[in-house]
Amino acid sequence: MSVETPRERSWTARVRTRAESALPPEKLLPDRQPAYVASWIYVFGALTIAALLAIVVSGLILGLKGPAWWHVTAIGRFFNGIHLWSVEIFFFTMVVHLWGKFWMGAWRGGRSGTWVVGAITFLISIAAAFTGYLSQQNFDAQWISTQAKDGLNAVGIGAFFNVTNFGQMYTFHVILLPLAVVLLTAWHVLLVRRHGVVPPYVRSAAVARSEEHA
Amino acid sequence: MFVPTVLGAVFDLSRRPHYVHWHFFQMSVVNLLVIALMVVVFVAAILLPFPHRRTEP
Amino acid sequence: MASPRDAAPPWTGPYRSYDIVKELAICIAVVAALATLLTILFSSPDEKPSTIASWARSQPNDFLTTATAELDGSSDTAGYGPPYNHAATGQVIGPIHLQSWLGVSHPVNTAVDYVLAPLATIPNDPALRAALGRYAAAPPAQRSAWTDAYAKTIGRAGSGRGAGPVAPMMTALLGLAQSGGLDGALLTSQHFYQTDYTKPLLFLADGSLLSDRAQAQHLLGDQWGMMNETGSYPGQVWLWLYTFWYQIKPFSTSDNADALVWALMMLLSVAFVCIPFIPGVRSIPRWIPLHRLIWRKHYRAHAGPAS
User: I need a labelling partner for C296 at 20 to 30 A (CA). Which of A66, A195, C65, C152 fits?
Assistant: First the structure.
């Protein structure tokens, strides 16, 4: 039985070695893709990330000036507009990305984790958007909170997640849920880099013969 | 420092929208447009040709 | 186990140059430009919130009707159950009582919180103090008789006849509400710094003002309101399936609709996350081969018997 060297016993070295073997630089930032990656549908993942960036940046600006700012200044209203439309673009591109990935069967070849993380990111994003609507401090927030409380109370969640508590919802919206969405998105992208873009379905021999005779 | 020169809306969307009713189904025209646009964009993304790049072995 | 035709063996074919950093940079520019354009064209909605003061001034009869219901325990909040009080057991999913599993975590005593405690803060009003004392000393049956009598006369000639001390109490409460004092009392009476709007929101929601405004904006449940935004702005189209269930039986007529819809959506969400593991569902993309369009160049380049 070989004896581990001090370096091999090092946690740091072990983490680095595992990370390097899972994601060497040329896999982390590849400058080439398999030839089948040649469709505009593949751009929608990047568009979704771009929209998320716009949401975070506009959200940071709104957060810097506090939750009342956008109600009382034109420039605040402008950045609130950027934030809202970035959210609309985010869900638009994420759904198109999701449709593309479903019809490509993108979970194949050991990529089920990528689908699972992506699907969870979608659901957490809905929760993040929901707390955003609750943080608006206007009539829409009043209506949404007094309606949504019934659904959450009915299953006991209202006892610890109180949608009529602005302070709690604002904290979830500006810190907890964006952190979750960003971390899940990063994990999703790293999984795509690690496993590569899913290859096309293998055509059956029958289909190949029928296409030959078409 | 960039200061947006147009900070108000060009189009006023604060008025009541139009709705589509069919049996129990109700949706605002604007929401239906968004969904229709998603489908159009999805189909276009699949069908439109993607720029050709040199392939390597 | 997945079908062999769903296999995705490692790619051994040709590659193409693909600049993912440039792609992301272009996407950022496109999204930033699109969001800016949409903001310049349409801005964003901001309907002003309702206050108890605005409610009491615009709909005084509705305010008084609601306040009376809070006092006699017949309002929606008074009879809600957990997490606000023990008045009901709440909704169930079959034998499972999720609404009550964590108990009363946000106690609201509607009679005290919305009527008696705010009235007790009004200074220099001996008549009001006497009315409050008379109300407190009366047995429950007498109190009910007074509130019933008062509720019948709201907005009518001879308002308050037979209502005993409830009439001057409600008159004082209306004055307090119209001055804005009730908004403040419900928010900061316990703490100076406060971000929890539960009490004023529940009170507002027990009345008609919020639902009247919501109906005008097509935000009610049976208007598929969950998907909608105020005005003509695009809303939350991704909530279409959540609101759909509320429109059809058995959910549309069930007292447990909220709990049942939530449970169903949780199940469907788990199924959505687990698509790769569900036989049949995971094969749909193979059975309906839209992928042949997406990968048409690949299939043309690799025409011939499958490898």
Answer: A195
